[in-house]
Design brief:
The structure is a homodimer. By secondary structure, the first copy, chain A, is α/β, with parallel strands linked by helices. The first copy, chain A, folds into two domains: 116 residues, Sulfate adenylyltransferase; 244 residues, 3-Layer(aba) Sandwich (Rossmann fold). The first copy, chain A, contains 16 helices and 14 strands. In chain A, helix 5 packs antiparallel against helix 8, helix 7 crosses helix 8 and helix 12 runs antiparallel to helix 16. At the A-B interface, helix 11 and strand 13 of A face helix 11 and strand 13 of B.
Chain lengths: 423, 423
């Protein structure tokens, strides 16, 4: 019997992905349906509904669910759910379809799913702003002047504000997992696949490390605390889309592979990836991570500094604090069962002679090796030496190569621009 | 409202220590009662019953409880309890008292308690052996030839086999905490005192580190994992008696003070001591630690390598495994609520560039700084250099001083012996 935490929502893994003959039949039917182009974010959400990662969701939210989730972090039926999962469509598309109809959801030429429309609701500028304030506003300095800063600097807010004029809700049948299974063959995993792997190892108490950045010593430290006190750790990377300037998934996966190979005991670590785009919703996204990770069989979500944050929108540890304030329905199935494993700001400390956090190291700033991501990127792209103890050499080599490539690309572009090339 | 785990047994803190007028009256009465001399171990047990550390026990076990605890790790009423807490008396004393009578329990001239006798039962050689096999026998090499090795090399077994011919059970009224409050004024704490201190800090999830040795980097690492994932850690030292050769409590407390001062963040650590003698019962003693720690408000017991072990009697991690096999009654109050926080063998690893365990470090023996206690004692007493990263310099200074003192004492003894001095 599995020792893993049950999926969220009390209905087992709710998987909307079709297979075999059913899939073929639905594909044929879909070709004849009204086609609606969807965003990259919606594609990731769809795949998660396909593979059970978003259990118990089986479609995009109607107005009642959207409103309830924004306001109360509960689905209309009282089940915990932290962020809206909605599909935006244009005024024209909204006028062309009606409730009860089936439509095909398409991303860049591939039919990803069919949906049986259950609700079409307008999203005015005011509605979008209302959603953004509830979902994205935090307690950091940037959130104090939210509407001055966010529309330009918050990628999640920008995305919602740029959504089309209507949302459409309805249950989905998912037809494809997109490029993920082939692009990340050893990393991309469905909840059922990850659960099977963990069941094989007999795991019950599992920690997950959320990663959207290359793994430095601080991340390694978090993961290893997970290994020390749980049956094992899942290094669970986002392999969907990020904001410009972030390091692409392929490079991150290579860094993790190397790190796992050289610095982890393989029995106690699994690298896995999930197909979502970043929402940058800080605390609420930390809750989303815990929610879908429960579906993946994970019951301890490592939460460090500024989890899923962006700029100065969120307080350093808001994503830890929010777990104490969420509604936790009495019914087991409706409650979030994946717990936060909160870790303070971590660093290497020379006096401690190892990694430490603000909770375990009493020493001073001068004893600690602390580097901002921006500073590190600068050092790497300039080929400068990174301070001792900050990262693992084997990982820095990969990052250096990536940044050199970037620099070359920029130089080529500049040369082309200078020589007037049209390419 | 306190966030701490409730005391074991579902009856709150059961404290048999008298105070004020009641204490004075009982003391007067006790002076006129039949006096029974008790062992050092029984004195520690008594004080624990006095301060609520052994809740729900309110006296020494009668035959039914002794038998049930040895066999099933349950009190006769079905409450979990891992080791017998009994009082041995001589044949002569047994003949001189009877059930229903009150007696005074005395240790080295001090009346520690009165007891209302409820049961007097013979402990034959066979009974003692039966108890020893159930309580002390493990799975290590020394336990394979238990009766050849234990009577000479297992201090716990030696103690039980040397017990007098009878046990006497009955409820107690405790009159004194002995020398502990004055000898360890900043360290010795009752469960109520430790709970108050932790309530003040708002702690709910608390880890405890069991210590009967000076604190090296490995112990520090365990404690700090506790700090990272709990509200705080209690460094909880045994301040009762140990086997010859172990380092006395005063020296250990000084080492911990220094370590806490230089290497811990004070908000997240409390040093405390409890008045028991070591039983060296390995796995069963680890359970006893978890049981009385629950009374102290602790719900996570750090369990490392060979917890409470002696020689090669116990498997390296038997004390971790036993937690999975114990009877856990359905009723909340009867169940052990303090959980083990198991940590593998830990060490400093040069390649990891910090502390690690067998679960987190994939490197080889050559990369690790591992030192046996025996080897370390030898190095310290000879004034030899201890390898880098093994201990904190500030602690090693204290230990060196202690061992130099020991060496001087031995030298003085030898000189005296050589010069024929009678002192």
């Amino acid at each position: 019997m599995s020792r893993l935490v049950p999926p969220h929502g009390g209905k087992g893994l709710v998987c909307c992905l079709l297979e075999g003959a059913e899939l073929e039949a639905e594909k044929k039917k879909a070709a004849g349906l009204k086609q609606i182009e969807i965003s990259s974010r919606a594609k990731g959400d769809l795949i998660m509904m396909g593979i059970g990662g978003f259990s118990p969701l089986n479609g995009f939210m109607d107005k009642a669910n959207w409103k309830s989730v924004c306001e109360k972090m509960l689905l209309a039926d009282g089940t915990f759910w932290p962020v809206p999962v909605t599909l935006d469509i244009s005024k024209e598309d909204a006028a062309a379809i009606k409730v009860g109809e089936e439509v095909a959801l398409v991303r860049k030429g591939e039919i990803m799913a069919t949906m049986k429309v259950s609700d079409i609701y307008e999203m005015t500028e005011a509605d979008k702003k209302w959603e953004c304030e509830l979902v994205f506003k935090g307690e950091g300095p940037d959130s104090q002047n939210f509407w001055e800063v966010a529309p330009k600097d918050h990628p999640g807010v920008k995305m919602v504000m740029a959504q089309k004029e209507f949302n459409v809700g309805g249950t989905v049948k998912v037809l494809s997992q997109g490029e993920f299974p082939t692009k990340f063959p050893n990393v991309y995993m469905t909840p059922a696949q990850l659960r099977a792997k963990m069941d094989e190892r007999g795991w019950g108490k599992v920690a997950a490390l959320q990663l959207r950045n290359p793994m430095h010593r601080s991340h390694e430290y978090l993961a290893k605390i997970g290994v020390e006190v749980c049956d094992g750790v899942v290094i669970h990377s986002l392999v969907g889309a990020l904001k410009p300037g972030d390091i692409p998934a392929e490079v991150r996966v290579e860094c993790i592979d190397t790190l796992v190979d050289k610095y982890f005991v393989k029995d106690f670590v699994i690298q896995a990836g999930y197909p979502l785009d970043m929402r940058y919703a800080g605390p609420r996204e930390a809750l989303l991570h815990a929610t879908f990770r429960q579906n993946y069989g994970i019951n301890n979500q490592l939460v460090g500094r500024d989890h899923a944050g962006v700029g100065d929108f969120y307080g350093m540890f808001e994503a830890q604090e929010i777990f104490k304030k969420i509604p936790q329905p009495a019914e087991d199935g409706k409650r979030l069962l994946c717990q936060p494993m909160n870790i303070d700001w971590t660093f290497y400390c020379k006096k401690c002679d190892g990694m430490a956090s603000m909770r375990t190291c009493p020493h001073s700033k001068e004893d600690r090796v602390i580097l901002s991501g921006t500073k590190l990127r600068k050092m790497l792209s300039e080929g400068a030496e990174v301070p001792d103890h900050f990262g693992r050499d084997e990982v820095l080599v990969i990052l250096r190569k990536y940044y050199e490539g970037l620099t070359e690309k920029v130089e080529v572009k500049m040369q082309r621009a200078a020589s007037g090339s049209a390419m």
